[in-house]
Write a structure and sequence with these properties.
Blueprint (H helix, E strand, L loop, with lengths): L6 H36 L14 E3 L4 E4 L7 H4 L4 E3 L14 E6 L2 E6 L25 H4 L1 E11 L3 H6 L26 E3 L10 E5 L8 H11 L2 E10 L6 H8 L12 E3 L2 E4 L9 H11 L6 E10 L4 E9 L4 E6 L2 E6 L10 H10 L6 E4 L6 H10 L2 E6 L2 H13 L9 E5 L2 H16 L6 H6 L5 E5 L25 E9 L6 H13 L13 H6 L5 E9 L2 E9 L2 H7 L6
Parallel strand pairs: 11-12, 16-17, 16-19, 17-18, 19-20
Antiparallel strand pairs: 1-2, 2-5, 3-6, 4-5, 6-8, 6-9, 7-8, 10-11, 12-13, 14-15, 20-22, 21-22
Length: 575
Amino acid sequence: MERGRSPITQQLRVAARKKKRRKNISLVIGIIVGLELCLHQMACHTMSVHALMRPQCVVQHHSRCAFLGRQQQFASKWGSSRIRNHHSKLMFIQPINSNWKPINKYNNICFHTRHHSTTITRLQADLSTINESNWQSFSNELEETLELPSISVPAKHIHWLLSNKDSPIKSFLAHTMDEFEGIHPKIKVVRNLDQDDDDDQVRKRILLSSTELIPDDTFQLLQEKYHARMEDTFNICIPHHQQPVTRILSKILPEEAQPPPSSYEQVGHVVHVNLKAQHVDYGKIIGSILLDRLQPTTKTVVNKLGEVGGPFRTYQMGLLAGEDDYFVHVVEHGVSLYFDLRKVYWCTRLEGERTYMLKNEFQPNQIIADAFCGCGAQLIRAASKKGCRIVANDLNPDAVEYCKESARKNGIDVSPGNFDVQCGDAREFIMNLGMRMSESSSTTPASDTTINAFKLPHHLLLNFPLDSPSFLNALRWWPSGEVMDPPPRIHVYTFARGDEDRTEAEVAIDMVADGLLPEGGYSIASKFRGDYLNELGCNVEAREIRDAAPGKLVICVSFSASRTLLRRMQGDFFD
């Protein structure tokens, strides 16, 4: 103890000196890491990590380098834990994010990037020679070998330690590592262990994370309560066919094509991607890898060319890999749909909306009308699951035929009055829903089947987000003298962007109001017209369906076609 200083003051000074030493060490290691990254860039991916890093370094694929000291009880036994390419002793780091920051965890000095963006070891072969025909010959180089620490416990404790939320080891298991994200099938963290002759009970090996070392007190608890003991490191090999597509592409595609495509959509046996400009030249190899990794459910991989457009809302596509076959079989909640993906509009993301309508809007045996039915996914599900009667329309003749054929294959009676689908203009279809009922009410009553066909629908769907509100003026042809309880419910899907005064939902409601009762001749405010529609008995509701673009949503506006609304649309402004 220094003279003239109290014990507390002395302890504070000692702690301050230790803290200063730790900061200096952190600074030195940070400089080393920075130099290594600079040298790595200059060497064009030819520098070995081992030339600059200490033996206790752990190198990860996710832009994270952790320098682990040996202060933990088991660090001295486990020693070095590294991630390498199969058959290679070199591990190269290409940083995606250079925002390094130091952290202290369990008395180890660690450095990692601010974001967990994936950094993958590139193949050491000439990437220009790799193509869709020969990339699989590099399967050995694509493999990854991870050296993981492990402990063993008696087999009777395995289930509790792995499944119980209070397990002290759960957050340190190997499958929590970023390196195993997307690996399919998942690795098994419990392995058999060669038994010693003096063991009186069966023990199992548990694989642990090489980046999150177990604290001393936790390991002591495992020793005392669960009879755990340290074991040698265990090597895990991850072949290319277990790795996610993006990881394989990151190793094969050259620098100018990075980062690789990260998403795709599968429709039946067809997978389609939206390749960016930097990926187009490598489309064939991207398609080949997707085809290989997504088998056996995938037979065709295509690239979307241009935007959805034209009168039928279709898009052009280019074949990247597999069979030139676009006639798909899609199963959605037990219902089979058959169509040519090139000839009809299809959106997998609307599956949730179709399910919502079935659960919350449609009731058994109701009449459902759809002015833009497409290949009929919503209608076939309603007819199959709830016995709804269908009257529908689409401008695309191919979509109409696919809708009818899919209904037949699902055992639905497609006779008029039960499942009636026509090809024509949506506005005329909506008008005729009302006009034929008016005509039938003035003629001699016909059979029950014919009368059912001439009833107004319980629900009318207008799922054409580009221009659905403009078709609402056709409702003026619906009869306003008939009392329907409840009145028909209209569901209008439209794109909407919020403005400084209104949300996206409020904008969508105003668009519907303008489609029903445009301004002129009757003084109505141009904004916030939802209350006005409710005064007419419309009971307006709005729901967000999905994002279409930044700041642009698809909104579903539902309202009731009340007698008062129809009379107002027909020019009767007085009750």
